[in-house]
Design goal:
This protein is mainly α. Helices cover 70% and strands 0% of the residues. It has a domain at 6-93. It is built from seven helices and no strands. The radius of gyration is 46 Å and the shape is flat.
């Protein structure tokens, strides 16, 4: 880039003082300073954008590598599961050959007897369990227990008519 030393800057300042004059030199110096500041900010923004794009490319490459490694691991795990399943099925088939499933555990009290007895879960009354608040407390606090229509509510709270 440009190499400005102190002697070159002093020479440019002296020439600018002679050409521009002492009245306009401060305003021109401020303008040049603002323009240099804008140029530096622009260069810094461009550098930051280039760095971000480089980092983005690196992250994309890293992501691709990680996805490939995950696929390889998934494939190896699936292969191991399949081989273990085949070994299990073969062992299970060898162990269960010659056994009668109805006679092995079908005695009374055995593990299969409860499945065949027709057991049903007890029915629970959900209305009883609906609330843990006692009815006397609800009545004292004025909580409505039954739904009433608007006309029934008006008739209930209407003052009794005076009979003459």
């Amino acid at each position: 880039m440009l190499d400005f030393g102190f002697d070159k800057i002093a020479l440019i300042g002296a020439v600018a003082l002679v050409v521009l004059g002492p009245e306009r030199l401060p305003r021109v110096a401020r303008t040049v300073g603002h323009l240099l500041g804008k140029a530096q900010r622009y260069v810094a923004d461009v550098k930051a954008e280039v760095n971000r794009s480089i980092e983005l490319e690196e992250l994309k490459k890293m992501k691709g590598g990680i996805e490939e490694a995950a696929r390889d691991i998934g494939a190896s795990v699936q292969q191991e599961i399949n081989s273990a399943s085949q070994v299990f099925e073969q062992t299970w088939g060898d162990a269960s050959t010659g056994l009668d499933p109805d006679s092995s555990y079908a005695y009374e009290g055995g593990p299969l007897s409860s499945a065949r007895s027709g057991y049903q879960a007890p029915k629970k009354n959900w209305r009883v369990k609906r609330s843990a608040t006692p009815q006397w407390y609800k009545q004292r606090q004025g909580v409505r227990r039954y739904v009433q229509s608007g006309a029934a509510r008006v008739a209930r709270f209407r003052p009794p008519s005076a009979k003459v």
